[in-house]
Amino acid sequence: MAEKRIRVLVAKPGLDGHDRGAKVIARSLRDAGMEVIYTGLRQTPEQIVAAAIQEDVDVVAMSLLSGAHNHLFPKVVELLKEKNAEDILVLGGGVIPEADIPFLKERGIAEIFTPGTPTGKVVKFIRDKIGEKV
Amino acid sequence: MELVQRARQGDRRALARLITLVENEAPEAVEALQELYLFTGKAQVIGITGPPGSGKSTLTDKLVKELRKEKKKVAVIAVDPTSPFTGGAILGDRIRMSDLNLDEDVYIRSMGTRGSLGGLSAATSAATKVLDACDFDYVFIETVGVGQSEVDIVKAADTTIVVMVPGLGDDIQAIKAGILEIGDFFVVNKADRDGANRVALELRMMLDLNEQKLVWQPPVLMSVANQNQGIAEIVAGIKDHFTYLKESGELAIKRRERLEKELLEIVSKKIYRQIADKVQREGKLKQYLDSLMKKETDPYTLVKVILQDVIKT
Ligand SMILES: Nc1nc2c(ncn2[C@@H]2O[C@H](COP(=O)(O)OP(=O)(O)OP(=O)(O)O)[C@@H](O)[C@H]2O)c(=O)[nH]1
Ligand SMILES: [Mg+2]
Q1: Is residue B148 within 8 Å of residue B177, measured between CB atoms?
Q2: For chain B, what is the domain count?
Q3: Shortest CA gap A15–chain B (Å)
Q4: Is there a single domain that holds both residue B141 and residue B162?
Q5: CATH topology for A7-128?
């Protein structure tokens, strides 16, 4: 049997046009041996969820700078649930105030990584959560 | 298999899961492919190949949209290279197809090559069968943009489109090695750029010199994919080619040849695994290698011993 790989959808919801952070994380996940599906800028939660399902990913990682995280991140979790895909791990990153983090976690986002988080930490988090499944 | 039933009823999650099983060569994949085989053979499989950045994904996106006007069900497999060092990959072809995400009758799947050379992954063919059996009318396969002879696509596709662009320098020559033979038609994309006409002309000249294919003359078309120009003509060409394949009997011949290759490939893989497992399990491999290193025997003698050993059991 061929080796299984962790598959991650890296998405950039919202309207801001900066995908540097998303690209950095995409590269470090690739370097950690994962398959990263990169979907580009300005994705709606609906598009993200549809792509996540078609690609059968283990993880959806979103990065956001525009401040709409309290709406967009939980929306993705909700839509995944609607599609019976709540087993997909949802991660958030970007400029997110500390104060918002408890709310986001309560709404089903597994972890929030703020700027400056070493990418190795994200890799480790995914491996720990998905590792036993894959 | 429940997953197969769900996938055939249009459950996208089930379909996606099936393809993952196939990609990972999971034991369940065999059972699934057994059940699905009966339903295969209807879809037209279209390979899109060409140099990196030539517009393969953009073109695919537009071709799919054109076919969607006729309510056809369309699937896309987009292959990107896996890093040979880490086994990881960044699969970015979807970026050009994001408007298709929400269309329920379109399915797009990104795949890493996972160590295969030749522009596809080992599982691409099997994944194509899954999609075919799930009633997609068209299955597009976008190969890795390696620019050299991506011969594998010919083994997987009914119709192969080679995408070229102006500005590759004077050496269409360099790229053409092997590529003239694999194209059922050629698209000069980025025709908004200088030199497109010349590329098309050169291609036509080289195709005229190529006397192998007399019946089907590969057309050379032009497009500006990002502006949706030339797309309807390519779709018409895709359909013409399928009609030609069917009417000439070439489709049956192609598919028969493909089945032969696949069958023998599965057999040899299976035999290889059985022998390799047995040799490993009984701990004989180490012993064999020791005696080879000491020159007590040679590999050819050992192969005979190993094969006899397997046949006996
Ligand atoms: N000027 C021009 N640009 C185009 C045309 N078609 C595509 N592009 C652009 O070319 C770039 C590459 O397009 P892709 O569709 O990603 O090319 P690709 O062949 O799929 O690339 P790889 O998968 O990386 O090999 C993008 O920026 C497109 O917008 C065209 O007809 N004219
Ligand atoms: Mg591409």
Answers
A1: yes
A2: 2
A3: 15
A4: yes
A5: Rossmann fold (3.40.50)
Quick: pLDDT tens for B67-111.
999 999 999 999 999 988 899 999 999 999 988 999 999 999 999
Which residue has the least CA distance to atom 29 on ligand 1?
A: B226
SS3 B126: helix
- Quick check: B78 and B100 in contact, CB under 8 A? no
Are A25 and A63 a contacting pair, CB within 8 Å? yes
Contact A30 B102 (CB under 8 A): no
Shared domain for B205 and B79, answered yes or no, is yes
The full set of domain ranges for chain A reads 7-128
Does residue B2 belong to any structural domain of this protein? no
Answer whether B107 sits within 8 Å of A47, measured CB to CB: no
Could you tell me the residue range of the domain that residue B297 belongs to?
261-312
Q: Are residues B115 and B242 in the same domain?
A: yes
Find, among B290, B311, B185, B293, the residue nearest to B239 by Cα. B185
Half-sphere exposure of B152 (CA within 13 A, CB side): 20
Count the neighbouring beta carbons within 10 Å of the beta carbon of residue B133. Answer: 24
| DSSP summary character for residue B230 | S
Whether residue B268 is found in the same domain as residue B221: no
Distance CA B146, CA B48 (A): 12
Distance, CA of B108 to CA of B129 (rounded, Å): 14
* B164 C-alpha to ligand 1 centroid (Å): 11
Report the C-alpha gap between A20 and A41 in whole angstroms.
Answer: 11
Residues B170 and B279 in one domain: no
Please measure the distance between the N-terminal and C-terminal CA atoms of chain B and give it in whole angstroms: 32
**B220, β-bridge pairs:** B186
pTM to 2 decimal places: 0.93
- Residue B178 lies inside a defined structural domain of this protein: yes
* Shared-domain flag, residues B275 and B218: no
Q: Is the CB of B58 under 6 A from ligand 1?
A: yes
Report helix angle A69-82 to A45-54, nearest 10: 40
* CA B94 to ligand 2 centroid distance, Å: 8
In angstroms, the separation between the Cα of residue B85 and the nearest Cα of chain A is 8
Q: Compute the distance between CA of residue A6 and CA of residue A1 in angstroms, rounded to an integer.
A: 16
Best mutation target among B105, B110, B130, B272 (most A Cβ atoms within 10 Å) is B110
Q: What Å distances lie between residue A46 and A58, B96, B119, B241, CA to CA?
A: 17, 17, 31, 36
Q: Is residue A62 a contact partner of residue A38, using CB atoms and an 8 Å limit?
A: no
| pLDDT tens-digit series, residues A24-69 | 899 999 999 999 999 888 889 999 999 999 999 999 999 887 778 8
Q: What's the pLDDT score for residue B270?
A: 86
